[in-house]
Write a structure and sequence with these properties.
By secondary structure, this protein is an all-alpha fold. It contains 26 helices and four strands. The strands form two sheets. A two-stranded antiparallel ribbon has the order 1-4. Strands 2-3 form a two-stranded antiparallel sheet. The longest helix has 30 residues.
Length: about 575
Amino acid sequence: MGFADLLDEVGGFGRYQWIHVTLISLPGLLMASQNLLNNFVSGVPTHYCSIPANHSLNNLSHLHQVDEKQLLKMFIPPDSSGNRLARCRRYVNPQWQLLVANSSTNVSHLETEDCIDGWTFEQSDFLATTVSEWRLVCSLRPLKQMIQTIYMGGVLTGAIVYGSLSDRFGRRSVLIWSYLQLAVLGCSSALSPTYSAYCIFRFLSGMAVSGVIINGVSLKVEWIPTKARTVVGTLSSFFFTFGQMVLAGLAYWLRDWRKLQMVVSAPLFLFFTYSWWYSESARWLVLNRRSEDALKSLHRVARINGKSEMIEKITVEVLHSHMNKEIESAHSTFTVFDLLRTPGMRRISICLMAVWFSTSFAYYGLAMDLQKFGVSIYLMQIIFGAVDIPAKLFALGILSYLGRRVSQAVCLFFSATIIFANIFVPTDMQTLRTTLACLGKAFTSASFTTVYLYTGELYPTVIRQTGMGFVSTMARIGSMAAPAVLILDEVLPALPSLVYGGSAVLAGCFACFLPETLNVPLPDTIEDVETKWSGRRGASQQECVALKEDVALKELKEAEESGLNAL
């Protein structure tokens, strides 16, 4: 017997679970907005050097009967492609001869200077962004990508901080706090007076996003029966997918970074208000010696599910009998170092680190640079969001037929191939470039779906949560590094794609060394992993014995400390 059987007795996946899962999943619509917000909040409008203060385009166009765009060519040289105005240079003196039709002047030899009078930003795509407000162009261009890197640093920090806090104070309490923190700091970001203040608010918002995601998933999973978890997990992930399309609609409607920041943050106050309805995880309550509170939560769930007759039958003794195994396993503590101690665990952990990092690295590399495709950024965001739907369904399909290892490697190799192929497509072939980019994003999304399932099946029960937390940290590091790589296009336009694609190829090779888990029972102990998948069975058994002895020593030390405290 286990806690899952107890959940079945109080209604299984009943009315409470439907309400519970829906309410926790709804904020997922805005988590996508937070992660991809920089695409629009820090969008780069078309810009060029402002002309000298003693000239006026409006007066000159009336005087010379010439279009303002033609007049700009007197002041602004063309860029390297020759098709657009340069963004960071202007002529030292106006070049009046360029107004003459069919002028043969060689503009490459004309003297130019930096934008000493600032820049002029067009408002065809964006009314206002952080880039236009704080002039994050030309030499300050890296600061635009720095915003996203700082935000992802907050996400990484939040995963570490709020992950440990939830084990100490409970999933519900930390989740409620994370809603409030994200609401307050998200709205504060919209009122930021300076670039530095905005970066600080985004870092703290990233921490809150981690708190919402980590504790939301835990609280959701711990109140639903085992057989419903796969379906619920898949359906819940679609909230994030639809959230990407919602973001595109809001950004197109508002086109002002402060308004957009406020609109995607203010609803968190609503989520904070109704989050008090959640019940704390009964598993966590029992393992933290709060069995009476756990019993009250179970009685509440039974009442909402229409199983009132079970209220008198479920007592503290019954609860403990169902959770005896969990209570015993809670006394054994494992650390990150145990993931690397034995050869089988070491191979799995190193390979998964590479897969998680590269998948996130390539995913955000594609998702955070929508303007380079030459198509409307709003349309690209909708397409990139919609493509996740068939990608996830495709991943779930091939996992059952090709197995986990082949599926993981195929997704990574295909995404790398498509990223490399796009390097050779001319910039004027926008339809083909957009199609390939969507396919690349689809395969990286499928890789994410695969690695989530694969990781849970590779790590044994006793250390599964520690393993998941460790390797998913590599994904957050990958998402931090992805925006920084985009500035390499100043050196060579194809360089970011080479880095993203090369990373995916390397991870695909690592995936080939992972063991297959299709139709294989889940391992419960580290010894199970070594017996099934390690090539050094005898040695690994010795290492597992040593690991058990270490755990026993830890338990003995804890018992001694408890005895001293009691005295």
